[in-house]
Design brief:
Length: about 270
Amino acid sequence: MIVKAASCQLRIDVTDVAGNRARAAEAVTEAARRGARLVVLPELACSGYVFTGPEEARERAEPADGRTVTDWCALSAEYGLVLVGGFCELGEDGHVYNSAVLVDAGEPRAVYRKVHLWDAEKDVFRPGVARPPVVATSVGRVAVMICYDAEFPEWHRLAAQAGAQIIALPTNWPDEGRPPGERPLEVVRVQAGAAANRVFVVAADRCGTERGVSWVGGSAIVGPDGFPLAGPVADPCPELLLADLDPARADRKDLNPRNHVFTDRRPDLY
């Protein structure tokens, strides 16, 4: 089964929630029009990211059955696709989480709360306490993680060991600069995670500037060999990446007749 995946790189504005929702919906619609059956949106795709503090984040937060997820369920049902996107979640426990939802056939199948919080996120969000979910969907087994999670090799490995064929990665990568000609380290880590675990990774970043913070805009779709199938995006502008994935490729963990990324491990020595 070949699956067309889409990574939607969007311009997001923390002061324009309605506009963010509209841009996300337009991107999903265009991806569907071009044949995508798996669509990934950025981290905090509707709320924005650079909050003035915990109070503003709480104002933007929604329950998992709120407007954002409800809209995405409708899009998933209308176009018959799997949709993964980040949202600012008001948990049933009253805490605010940096979360991502996976929707399939119009139904929310999993909500993942970001475990590894970056910088000022620690002042705004409660960290999640669960491993990345792996969901058997209409396009294959999809795991969900968010942004900084991808910098921890254990998170890729746990998802792969749980059977993930595709990792959906909503992200907001702040641009902290790099030497001329170098690829963003965030993209390098995604490629390394894909190759080390023989999985596909669909990373959807954002672009533009929000309250003085610029973003890498490094969205990419990466194959199990670690090489990009689409992207990374070269310019910090809105972009729709598309690539054909064969999820079954990720079930093969052998590198050659004598090497295997899982059975060659030596956990007794780690």
